[in-house]
Amino acid sequence: xxxxxxxxxxxxxxxxxxxxxxxxxxxxxxxxxxxxxxxxxxxxxxxxxxxxxxxxxxxxxxxxxxxxxxxxxxxxxxxxxxxxxxxxxxxxxxxxxxxxxxxxxxxxxxxxxxxxxxxxxxxxxxxxxxxxxxxxxxxxxxxxxxxxxxxxxxxxxxxxxxxxxxxxxxxxxxxxxxxxxxxxxxxxxxxxxxxxxxxxxxxxxxxxxxxxxxxxxxxxxxxxxxxxxxxxxxxxxxxxxxxxxxxxxxxxxxxxxxxxxxxxxxxxxxxxxxxxxxxxxxxxxxxxxxxxxxxxxxxxxxxxxxxxxxxxxxxxxxxxxxxxxxxxxxxxxxxxxxxxxxxxxxxxxxxxxxxxxxxxxxxxxxxxxxxxxxxxxxxxxxxxxxxxxxxxxxxxx
Length: 397
Description:
The mean pLDDT is 84. The chain is globular. The longest helix has 31 residues, at 366-396. 53% of the residues are buried. 84% of the residues lie in helices and 0% in strands. The chain has helices spanning 4-21, 24-35, 40-66, 70-88, 94-111, 113-124, 128-139, 142-156, 159-187, 204-208, 211-231, 234-240, 245-253, 255-271, 276-297, 301-330, 335-364, 366-396.
């Protein structure tokens, strides 16, 4: 891999940004419910607003990255996210809590995987895949960092201290390494240009109406929706089943390493000449099996560990396969714009997941939620197969 230190810096930055701006929410969910007195649905709605805002801004952010503003987007969004965490730590009323997460949502649109991968693809072109895999291997430990660190500081001091800690780490460490890495990457950018007149007057809507795009869009939306429903409610779910605190922390801390395991498995499968399409279908199977393990686990520690391994592995593969499959099927030209449009569904699914999971819990409990998750994943799996078949048929013509 060319310029490995640049990618290492991006990977470390992604790890901390995911830990502090995304996984902090499920890590502190139960504490907000207890300490602030907000309902599950109310708390979930705040995060939902953040993710919705992020998804709506994704195409705009992708277009800016296509135009060469990747460095400004990544750094500016990180600073905004850190500022949001500081304000969040002073929240005592729900309207402040909600509004702060909406601001953090703006930051999420410009500093997590979507903009980072769009930027890497912009500057590295067809050589971006190895860099993306490396970034996700390291950033897979974000959950491992966030859940224990956030809860340890919350126990020692309070949850506000956890939010401020991540804010200061982002400002004092992440922002400088982002500046260094993106400055060096920009010097070596391949600056992908339209390869023919076909792309001279490119219109995004032409890609949005392609059947393969629509099928991919739906399948990725389902993956995000199902994953988000499980992950954002994992602490309340385990508490409801009277799982001991130490076991709760163990299960949630294993999510990150399990993602890394999934990515390592993916690398091994690729070396055995399994295509990215086959590996992508595996992500759906892993997620379906994981939801079944969690549904029937109750207090069984072994089934809970199997759940987190399958769930994390599927999520770990998805973060890579989603970008690579999209580029392979739709194309590398204007990848930022296409990826941003695709992210509306994926991030939108993440946005709906907390509040949908909370509503299902209020109606009939978490067992019903897990059954619905399994059904949704099966639908997403079918949609993904349809996208692959359409692409295969179009390339034969």
